[in-house]
Amino acid sequence: MERETWATRIGFILAAVGSAVGLGNIWRFPFQVGQNGGSAFLIMYLACVLLIGIPAILVEFVIGRRSQRNPIGAFHALGKSRFRAIGAVCVVTGFVILSYYTVVAGWVLRYIGGSATGAYFGSEEAYFLEIATGYDAVVLHAVFLAVTVGIVMLGIKRGIELAVKAMVPAIALLLAGLAVYALTLDGVVDGYRYYLSPDFATLAAEWTTILPAAVGQALFTLSLGMGVMITYASYVGEDQSLLVDSGSIALLDTVIAFLSGLILFPILFTIDATPGDGGAGEFFIGVGGAFADIPLGTIVGVVFFVTLAVAALSSAISILEVIVSYFIDEFGFDRRVATFGVGVIVFVAGIPAALDMGTFEVYDQVTGELLLPLGMFLLVLFVAWVVPEESLDELLKGRSGSNLDVFWLWWVRTVVTVAVGLTLVLSVYGFAVEFGLLAESA
Ligand code: PFF
User: Fold this and answer.
1) Which atom of ligand 1 sits closest to the CA of residue 94?
2) What is the rounded distance in angstroms from the CA atom of residue 373 to the CA atom of residue 209?
3) What is the 3-state secondary structure (H, E, C) of the chain?
4) How far is the CA of 19 from the centre of ligand 1 (A)?
5) Among the atoms of ligand 1, which is closest to the Cα of residue 227?
6) Which of 83, 146, 250, 315 could pair with 22 as two cysteines, CB 3.0-4.6 Å apart?
7) What is the rounded CA–CA span in Å between residue 401 and residue 153?
8) How does residue 152 score in pLDDT terms, banded at 50, 70 and 90?
């Protein structure tokens, strides 16, 4: 059976942007800014997207387009089956991320209704604690997953591509509208100052904690380290310039994350909330508290959570596609059967996270801080040292050559390897301290 492809180039770019733009941009990004020194983090993050994110997208792209396979099959197709464990790390990471990502998305669905009826106004914390775990959370996790399964079942062109062509412009428009609304709030001056006035002093003093957080956020937001970009690029034709596409994708994702900050900080400063209070629930509690208070809060709340739900959906479909493509490519499964089967397994795997906040946090931490950087690090080493010639050749397709290609390989071998490797080492160290295997240094 012939392998599917994207119908259009813009379809591929929007699908990749749809994957990149998600809870990471709107939920995770502003709180990373808050926890890591405000504008100092913003500067480091922008540098990481440019210097590490874009070259790393290309690492996944060349593997995907060269092999025309899912992340595990890719290694076989490239004649390097020995390394297929790297692909397995990616797919397993995707599986775990999807199982709890859809739990958070379920909360978002709940908050659309909660904003419309004002159900959480005045009791934000109690509301979150009530809906976040338990029967309701399981049901909404199932509902969100069912929609995700429905889209992926329809395939690349008729499912994912059509869906993202509607979803991505909608997300951008809704966020732009919210950013204009945020301009009218009392907290806009303080919020912007906190977010935008360059703070090089903090950056210099705390770069050792800001750097790994910024690298981690850049990987997470660009959907790197779990084979999404390998899988999406495996449906791309050879006449397309991967280099240009990676730049467009990173730019659009960054603009949307930046816009989210322009919305969130004025909102939070209007009610004097401290943006640094992180944690999965704090976001919902803090933002919910603001909607209860600010002008037009009900309608703004609904629009905000609808945007968040759409953004989460366009990311969830990309993770599901990674796993589904594995079953289709390697075992010849029918797409519908594979999608349904994987959906059921992901549903079951997510139940513990939907029932218990402690378990949820373990899923989030282990994947985000450990498995994503690990997967990315291994992919980087593979491209840089095992298949460098093939990778360069792949990058040249669809464009006229320049020294940029050789520079890219050199850059991946040095800066990207060191930055992602360092992030991984710091994460492992952090875990070792947390689980008492190592004493914290003074
Ligand atoms: N990039 C998505 C976001 O920012 O929300 C999250 C994500 C999707 C992470 C897909 C990893 C992934 F493979």
Assistant:
1) 13
2) 16
3) CCCCCCCCHHHHHHHHHHHHCCHHHHHHHHHHHHHCCCHHHHHHHHHHHHHHHHHHHHHHHHHHHHHCCCCCHHHHHCCCHHHHHHHHHHHHHHHHHHHHHHHHHHHHHHHHHHHHHCCCCCCHHHHHHHHHCCHHHHHHHHHHHHHHHHHHHCCHHHHHHHHHHHHHHHHHHHHHHHHHHHCCCCCHHHHHHHHHCCCHHHHHHHHHHHHHHHHHHHHHHCCCCCCHHHHHHCCCCCCCCHHHHHHHHHHHHHHHHHHHHHHHHHHHHHCCCCCCCCCHHHHHHHHHHHHHHCCCHHHHHHHHHHHHHHHHHHHHHHHHHHHHHHHHHHHCCCHHHHHHHHHHHHHHHHHHHHHCHHHHHHHHHHHHHHHHHHHHHHHHHHHHHHCHHHHHHHHHCCCCCCCHHHHHHHHHHHHHHHHHHHHHHHHHHHHHHHCCCCCCCC
4) 6
5) 13
6) 315
7) 38
8) very high
**Single-letter code of the amino acid located at 185:** L
pLDDT digits (tens, 9 = 90+) for 300-318: 999 999 999 999 999 999 9
Q: What is the CATH number of the domain that holds 363?
A: 1.10.4160.10
Q: Which atom of ligand 1 is nearest to the CA of 372?
A: 11
- CB contact at 8 A, 223 and 315: yes
Please check whether residue 440 lies inside any domain of the structure: no
Tell me the average pLDDT across 159-179: 96
Location of structure tokens 């429905």: 150
- Tell me, yes or no, whether 3 lies in a domain: no
- Rounded to the nearest angstrom, the distance between the alpha carbon of 225 and the centre of ligand 1 is 10
Number of domains in the chain: 1
The pLDDT value recorded for residue 442 is 44
Q: Does the structure show a pLDDT above 80 at 275? A: no
Token pair listed for 228: 């999404």
Tokens of 391: 């990778």
CA 85, CA 69: separation in Å to the nearest integer?
Answer: 15
Verify whether ligand 1 is closer than 6 Å to residue 217 (CB atom): no
**94-98, 175-179, 208-212, 382-386: range with lowest mean pLDDT:** 208-212
Does 4 map to a domain?
no
Name the residue at shortest CA distance from atom 10 of ligand 1: 223
54-112 pLDDT, tens digit each:
999 999 999 999 999 999 999 999 999 999 999 999 999 999 999 999 999 999 999 99
Provide the residue range defining the domain that includes 130: 9-434
